[in-house]
Amino acid sequence: MNKPLGPITADYGSEEAAMRAYCRDGERRAVALGNRGPIRFTADGALHPEILEAYSRCGFYVFEGVLGPEELADIEADFLDIRSRLPTEPGNPVDRQGRPALGHGHQGLNLVWGKPLSDPVGGTKAAHGRYPVKMFEPRPAAGAPDKVVYLILGSLQFSEACLRVYGHPGLLAVAAAVNGEDFAPFNEGLWMKEPGLGASVAWHQDGWTHWDSPDFDEGSHGFNFMAQLYGCTPANGLWVVPGSHRPGKADIKAWVAAAGTERLPDAVPLVCKPGDVAITNRQAVHGSFANTSPDWRVTVNFGFHRRRSVLGVMGGGVHNAPAVYDAERIRRRARLIGYAIEARRQRFPDEPSFSYAPHAQSGEVWRWDEAARAEIKDYNLLDLGI
Question: pTM, whole model, 2 decimals?
Answer without folding.
Answer: 0.96
